[in-house]
Amino acid sequence: MNALQSQVEVARRSLEALAGADAATLSGYLDDASVFRFRGDVPLAGEHKGPEHVGRFVRDFAALLSSRGARLEVAHVVPGPEHVYARFRVTAPASPGRAPVELGGCLMTRVREGHILESSLLLDDAYAFQRDLG
Amino acid sequence: MNAQDTSVSPQDGGTPELRPGGSAQQIESWLVQRIATLMQRSAQEIDVKVPLTRYGLDSVEAVTLSGDLEDLLERRLASTLVWDYPTISQLAQHLGQAAAQGNPNVITNRVRVEPRTTSAAPSFADDDDVKNNSRRLRLLDVPGVGNPYFRRCEGINGDRAVIGQREVVNFASYNYLGLSGHPDVSAAAKDAIDRYGTSVSASRLISGERPVHVELEAALAKLVGAEDALVYVGGHATNVTTLGHMFGPQDLIVYDELIHDSVLGGAELSGATRLPFRHQDLAGLDALLTRRRGDHANVLIVVEGVYSADGDVPDLAALVALKKRHRAFLMVDEAHSLGVLGKTGRGVGEHFGVDGRDVDLWMGTLSKSLASCGGYIAGSRKLVEYLRYTSPGFIYSVGMPPSNAAAALAAIQVMQREPERVTRLHERVKLFLSLAREHGLDTGTSSGSGVVPVIVGDTLQAIRLSGILMDQGINVAPMIYPAVANDGARLRFFISSLHTEEQIRHTLETVARELGRLKRDFSGSFEVMTLKASPDEHPNMTLAREGFDGFVTLDLPALSRQLAPDVVYHFPGRSPLAGAHKGKDAVLDFFVNAFRYTVGTLNVRLKELLADANHAVLYWSNTAHLPGTDLRLSADICEVLTLKDGKVVEAHWFVDNQRAFDEFVTQGARFIEAHEAAIGGTR
Ligand SMILES: Cc1ncc(COP(=O)(O)O)c(C=O)c1O
After folding, report:
1. In this complex, do B608 and A127 lie within 8 Å of one another by their Cβ atoms?
2. pLDDT of amino acid B332
3. Partner of B669 for a Cys bridge, out of B32, B504, B556, B597, CB 3.0 to 4.6 A?
4. What pLDDT sits at residue B408?
5. Given this model, what pLDDT does residue B527 score?
6. ipTM
7. From the alpha carbon of B234, which atom of ligand 1 is closest?
């Protein structure tokens, strides 16, 4: 696997970990200095640092998705010299009293030698995220 | 070197034919032959894996090469192509691949002309250039930026100027010797009006000639050491009409790449082959003439006596030797050197001790040191006689107003009577330069002329600094992209013999302090160049990079060229920027509003550029603040462009910190709209 492929792999696995609460896999890419950023006035927002905090964030995020029966799917990955961009979609069917969930976002991950230095989660609709998953 | 492709048929002199859609192999063969011809080597000597610069390919030839490729491949190519793909092999691979994938990206099909035949009558208000100009003006009216143009001055602009009823120290006027406003010069102009009226009411050829024209021309010729001279009503027009008239398609005009617009215009009008050489690179010019002299009837070299943006001086003695060796003509534009260079202000010829007759075409303006308006050509008697009877801008144009001719003549007389003006100018320039350097300011290559740039390195910061200095009582104009490169954006100081030492000291202290403050306050501003193009970068990345550069230099035409007509930009959130912006105009307005609603304080720092076959991703951080409040913005943005045929068809933006972003932009929009209402909108 070349460097770019492995970067893509790291980004994809990160998102899959987010989707499936797989904190263990993700932790393998992290060290104490790794930062996971989810900024803004949204549930779970903050700057999560190190395997323990990132692990907790991943579990909480996955729990948030599953509480709404939501699925996270990776839509598109573009690797670059420093960062990997991964776009995802979150969907959930309508449930009694709740409209279906349909939102997206992207994860910018800075990877070096198979290691995540930092990740930032950006949303295309922070308001819907809060409304539907908050 | 690779063997020649058998599908390639030779065409004049063995250069293989190249057609649109040519394969990498065909392009490579064509390039090998082309470089061999250009460098006068055999094709066997050309190694496709060696950087082209090793064969002595200079910037001029690189541009020519890209141009020829554009024509043959019928595609628009990035201007940096030959630098981005430095070897023949890389270049051919890149061009061939893009064609094969039908994914031209940076290489786009030539724009087809769309006849504008809608039912409504055509209006210039619908023209893209007109619209983009209006958009740019809206940006300049943002507070904290401030429109630096068309400042209205009330009195005589010397070392001081009166702007908006306030007296400021003035560095924005090329009144180098303080002769505009000199009582003798003004009196001569008034006297000429009394005697001859305000217009000569005809071409001089017919009956517009007055004695003062003839006297002025004799004085000018004597000043520069030529046999005769002819004056025209405008400096710009002098270059356009002279070059356009005297040279033709069989000729070659080579000029310094920083030459004035009027020379470019005249050269284009002439139909001659035009080639720029790298600024002040006389070795490059020599090499170019060695290769090209034989292909043309006449060759003209054009330089400036002082370069108007940088204030540096060409080596005239070396140029004279060079032009003699190549049997070329030499033209020197003395707009900024007459009255400035030389012990007695006789210009760059005096400065170098060059015989005036060794320059074939002396050109100059009356609008700078000579405190008037108009231009002149000085040279041999025969040349001037020819121009006097045939030059279109002379014979089909009114004679110079007597007041202008008399003012210029009086200015020459005062300059010669009071040589201390020139001496003082030299002293002031020296002081300005040494103090600027003491303050750590970047004055570029300025070397003893009346033009001293202070390079700021960023378009917006240059505009801001000019605004801040104006508030502090100093008038100096910014020079920004596209007049200079973005990282060469600057304030241009014109020094006058009238400036006092105190004015210069105070100004440089203020500039150093305010520039330092600006850099601190806007730290992290526009570090576009932190991500340099790499030779193997994806063409989509180049496109994204150029788009980003377009944004930070407010280059709306460049942005406009990247957008497909039915482009859609999706911006998230609930601010006035949010929504789906459909169509080119809406997207360009969106860019303008992004800037307006962040009140001109937006600073972006590009963190990453990514690309794949159909996308480019830009990732950057933004900061801004709302003046007079504690409201600050800090947010990252990721923009994903979907590209087709080298154009953006769709863009999705992702913002972290969305609520804070929306809050800021909503307040910013209110602020700016109130401001614009208060100033009565843009002019
Ligand atoms: C080098 C140069 N040539 C020509 C001109 C045109 O002269 P004018 O402004 O007198 O028309 C200028 C004007 O700024 C100039 O800088």
Report:
1. no
2. 98
3. B597
4. 98
5. 44
6. 0.92
7. 11
> Cα(B233) to centroid of ligand 1, in Å?
12
- Taking the CA atoms of B132, B134, B140 and B143 in sequence, report the sign of the dihedral they define: negative
Does the domain formed by B527-681 have CATH 3.30.70.360? no
Q: Topology of B183-417 in CATH?
A: Aspartate Aminotransferase; domain 2 (3.40.640)
Residue owning tokens 């061999």: B36
Q: How far is the CA of B333 from the centre of ligand 1 (A)?
A: 9
pLDDT confidence of residue A24? 82
CATH of B152-170+421-520, one of 2.60.120.10, 3.40.1350.10, 3.90.1150.10, 3.20.20.140: 3.90.1150.10
Q: Are B607 and A83 within 8 A, CB to CB? A: yes
> What's the pLDDT score for residue B349?
98
The residue nearest atom 2 of ligand 1, judged by CA position, is B335
- Contact by Cβ (8 Å): A119, A14: yes
Whether A41 has its CB under 8 Å from any CB of chain B: the answer is yes
Low-confidence ranges of chain A (pLDDT < 70): 1-5
The beta-carbon contacts of B282-288 under 8 Å, at least 24 apart in sequence, are B282/B314, B282/B315, B282/B318, B282/B319, B282/B322, B284/B58, B284/B60, B285/B254, B285/B322, B286/B322, B286/B325, B286/B326, B287/B56, B287/B58, B288/B58, B288/B60, B288/B254
Domain ranges in chain B are 8-109, 152-170+421-520, 183-417, 527-681
| B410 in contact with ligand 1, CB cutoff 6 A | no
CB B483 within 8 A of CB B309: yes
Ligand 1 centroid, distance to B130 Cα (angstroms)? 25
For domain B8-109, give the fold: 1.10.1200
Closest CB from A39, A87, A108 relative to B657: A39
Q: Which residues of chain A neighbour B571 with C-beta distances below 8 Å?
A: none
Q: Does the beta carbon of B242 sit less than 6 angstroms from any atom of ligand 1?
A: no
B window 607-646, beta carbon within 8 A of A? 607-612, 615, 617, 619, 635-638, 640
Q: How far is the CA of B274 from the centre of ligand 1 (A)?
A: 20
Is the full-model pTM beyond 0.90?
no
3-state helix, strand, coil in chain B (%, to 5): 45, 20, 35
CATH of domain A3-133: 3.10.450.50
Low-confidence ranges of chain B (pLDDT < 50): 1-13, 103-111, 523-531, 682-683
- The best mutation among B233, B239, B260 to test binding of ligand 1, ranked by most ligand atoms within 8 Å of the C-beta, falls on B260
Residues of A in contact with B574 (CB under 8 A): 127
Residue with tokens 């959930």: A92
Q: What are phi and psi of B279, to 5 degrees?
A: -50, 120
CA distance A63 to A42: 15
